[in-house]
Write a structure and sequence with these properties.
Blueprint (H helix, E strand, L loop, with lengths): L16 H12 L4 E5 L6 H11 L4 E5 L14 H13 L9 H9 L4 E6 L5 H14 L3 E7 L8 E5 L5 H16 L8 H10 L4 H13 L2 H7 L3 H4 L14 H10 L3 H9 L9 H4 L9 H7 L4 E2 L8 E2 L2 H12 L2 H25 L5 H10 L1 H12 L8 H16 L2 H14 L5 H17 L3 H14 L5 H17 L3 H18 L2 H18 L2 H18 L2 H17 L3 H18 L2 H17 L3 H18 L2 H17 L3 H18 L8 H14 L2 H13 L2 H6 L2 H9 L2
Parallel strand pairs: 1-4, 1-5, 2-3, 3-4
Antiparallel strand pairs: 6-7
Helix pairs in contact: 1-2, 3-4, 3-5, 4-5, 6-7, 6-8, 7-9, 8-9, 12-14, 12-15, 16-17, 16-18, 16-19, 18-19, 19-20, 19-21, 20-21, 21-22, 21-23, 22-23, 23-24, 23-25, 24-25, 25-26, 25-27, 26-27, 27-28, 27-29, 28-29, 29-30, 29-31, 30-31, 31-32, 31-33, 32-34
């Protein structure tokens, strides 16, 4: 028979062996219509050619890229239209006694054969009609199809052609670089090449184009230029259809096959970052029922691997293309971004209102999934004048509790300070709430002067009778004074807040004020008062089902038990707190519980375990920026190092703690001061005075990271020659 030969591959197929075998098994097992379906640039044609080449029966090939409907037969006969195009591709003569489909069936014959129809997405309807008739007319025929959407006929078996995983994409990049240059990828450029492959979603077309560019430029330069990926990733010298030669053309091909309403939704989905939930997509101006499913059917959106509940995403490359298209329509872009920002503002404010209740875990999970979208909304609102001009201030305020949970204090402070500067005319209540949130994050960031100043500012702006804000600010001022070790002043603020919340019937506020007052009490050494306050707080928070507050109160109670000498009770409270904090993924709490468990281990003389816990705690506190606790952990870690026989290293750790305390203006807490003094006295007894002073100075001028790397003999050597 006359037929078109399979295209001869110019390069090796990398990383698709499993897919070739799987599709081949389907054909061999009697699946008569196998469709390889995937997004633009996923390598469907190259994979299909490999599958067909491995097939036992004869293979005929037709590329349908240039097919247009109505070009070969009656417009009312879509199957005949497609059959006529394939006959022309084969150079086969028409039979006057048969229609186009039966002629094609006669051409393929009665024997077992495979017909590969490539690039069918733009003529899916006619090809589906042809497949149904052809399979009935030629019982031994198998069809292998490539398309960006399934044909949707009963006989079809769909094989999804996914992008390459990170390791395989890098192998492809390296192979194409070698084919171009004759040299292996330098080891120094492997990390950059891997980053390029990740940024390109592992799409084989994009990876191959990037490798071709890197052969001419360099890996770092291509990585830098990916901000304009569609200009950079083109290969004018490549053969084949244009949509196999440039990334932009590949996506243009998919885009132009969409109806105008689907094009609009695809464009507007570009406002999302990191995926979206169905309710979020529904707020877009272009959203209509069924459109999102239609885009999914064309492999332009896909289920998000990291989120359930129907969460969807676009590959980065598709998202970049959609964003470029959206930027061509400024009014539409503004409307879509406004809708996106309004949705995420409502989410943030709803979460802030409920984050201390029984739905805490679900809200934290939702906010974690939406972090990229929340950042995008903040960026948009920050530069959006006119109606809702204080929305950025409201969003920054609403996100502050979440930023406390996730330990990104500095980001939250930056957002709030910027919004407060931009919105001087915002309503007093909005500004008061923002100042209160900023003060909280400043306190967590150990910037006590800023925290106190912001709290005073918020008190001035707060509406008369607003118990919630006033109580929050009093507890904040009490926390600032607690960390500065002014315990009487701290207690006065917290007792005032406790009375205020109690008179207003605010159970959560009362529990919080009691918890913080209990913290001030045990830090000052008043363990009896601390226990009574904390027991009341624990009861309140268990009733309210606030898991984080329960865990925090248990941690306080663990500290009371530890400093009171009841180590079993301390360990019991702290292990429960650590489990709860871990379930919530709350870094501050995890670090704090590990700190106190390390001290309990020290008291039990389990020194290696104590050192491990304290090192982990210090890492967390430094990551979130809690210098107050970092200093305390350094002092406890110094005791662990001393007991492990490294007094010079221990003295250096004390020097580092002293520097932090001077920087933030917070001395060693009263309850920890005896332990600190015992450690220092023991070190002075173990080291000559000059050696102790030298180690202390070394610790004061050396980064904590370097100090943590010093242990054993290496520590002695480094400290002996400062």
């Amino acid at each position: 028979m006359e037929s078109a030969a399979l295209p001869a591959p110019l390069t090796s197929l990398v990383g698709r062996d499993a897919e070739v075998r799987a599709a081949g098994r389907l054909l061999a097992a009697g699946h008569r219509l196998v469709s390889l379906v995937g997004t633009a640039g996923s390598g469907k044609t190259r994979l299909a050619v490999a599958v067909a080449a491995a097939a036992a029966p004869p293979v005929q090939y037709a590329d349908l890229t240039t097919m247009r409907t109505g070009g070969h037969t009656d417009r009312c006969d879509p199957a005949g239209d497609a059959a006529g195009f394939v006959l022309d591709a084969f150079g086969a003569s028409r039979r006057p006694d048969l229609d186009a489909v039966d002629t094609l069936a006669a051409v393929v014959g009665d024997g077992r054969a495979v017909l590969l129809l490539d690039n069918c997405e733009h003529v899916a309807g006619p090809v589906a009609a042809l497949a149904a008739r052809l399979l009935a007319a030629a019982p031994a025929l198998h069809l292998l199809v490539t398309s960006r959407q399934p044909l949707g006929v009963p006989e079809e078996t769909v094989v999804s052609v996914a992008p390459l995983d990170d390791a395989t994409a890098l192998r492809l990049f390296e192979a194409r670089m070698f084919e171009r240059t004759g040299r292996p990828l330098p080891a120094a450029h492997r990390a950059g090449a891997a980053a390029i492959c990740r940024a390109l979603d592992g799409l084989p077309l994009a990876v191959e184009l990037a490798a071709a560019r890197a052969a001419l430029l360099s890996v770092p330069e291509v990585h830098r230029l990916l901000t304009d990926r569609f200009r950079v990733l083109a290969d004018a010298k490549a053969t084949g259809p244009e949509h196999h030669r440039t990334l932009r053309a590949a996506l243009d091909w998919s885009y132009e096959l969409l109806s105008p309403d689907k094009q609009a939704l695809l464009r507007q989905l570009a406002v999302f970052r990191g995926g979206w939930s169905p309710p979020a997509a529904a707020v877009l101006p272009a959203h209509r029922p069924g459109l999102l499913a239609a885009l999914a059917g064309r492999c332009l959106v896909e289920p998000h691997p990291a989120g359930g509940d129907g969460r969807v995403r676009m590959l980065q490359t598709v998202a970049a293309y959609a964003a470029a298209r959206l930027a061509e329509v400024p009014e539409e872009e503004a409307a879509a971004r406004d809708a996106h920002a309004a949705f995420h503002l409502e989410l943030a404010e709803r979460a802030a209102a409920g984050i201390h209740g029984s739905g805490q875990r679900d809200l934290l999970r939702e906010l974690t999934l939406e972090q990229d979208n929340l950042r995008a909304a903040m960026l948009w609102l920050s530069g959006r004048p006119g109606t809702g001009a204080d929305d950025d201030l409201r969003l920054a305020t609403a996100l502050a509790p979440f930023q406390h949970f996730t330990g990104v204090y500095r980001q939250g402070r930056d957002w709030l300070s910027g919004a407060l500067a931009r919105r001087p005319a915002a309503p007093p209540a909005v500004r008061a709430a923002a100042c209160s949130a900023a003060a909280t994050l400043a306190m967590l960031d150990c910037d006590y002067p800023a925290a106190a100043a912001l709290a005073e500012r918020a008190l001035a702006d707060a509406p008369d009778g607003d118990v919630r804000i006033r109580g929050r600010l009093l507890t904040l001022l009490g926390s600032v004074e607690r960390e500065r070790a002014d315990y009487p002043r701290s207690s006065r603020f917290l007792q005032e807040a406790l009375a205020l919340y109690r008179s207003a019937g605010d159970a959560w506020g009362e529990g919080r004020a009691a918890q913080l007052a209990g913290g001030t009490a045990w830090l000052s050494g008043d363990l009896g008062s601390a226990a009574a306050l904390l027991d009341a707080s624990l009861t309140a928070f268990r009733d309210l089902a606030d898991e984080e507050s329960v865990a925090s109160t248990l941690t306080h109670l663990g500290a009371v038990a530890h400093f009171g000498g009841d180590r079993p009770r301390a360990r019991r409270h702290l292990v429960e707190a650590l489990d709860r904090f871990t379930e919530l993924a709350f870094p501050e709490g995890i670090g704090w519980a590990q700190d106190l468990l390390g001290r309990v281990d020290l008291a039990d003389d389990a020194v290696p375990s104590a050192a491990e816990r304290l090192r982990a705690s210090l890492s967390i506190h430094r990551r979130v920026g809690d210098r107050w606790r970092s200093a305390s952990v350094l002092e406890a870690f110094a005791e662990a190092r001393r007991r492990l026989g490294d007094p010079a290293h221990a003295a250096a750790l004390l020097g580092a703690a002293d520097v932090i305390r001077r920087e933030i203006g917070a001395p060693t807490p009263a309850c920890e001061l005896p332990g600190r003094r015992r450690t220092e006295e023991a070190l002075r007894a173990a080291l000559p005075e000059a050696a102790f002073d030298r180690a202390l100075r070394f610790g004061a001028r050396t980064s904590v990271d370097e100090l943590l790397d010093l242990s054993g003999s290496a520590g002695h050597l480094a400290l002996a020659h400062p």
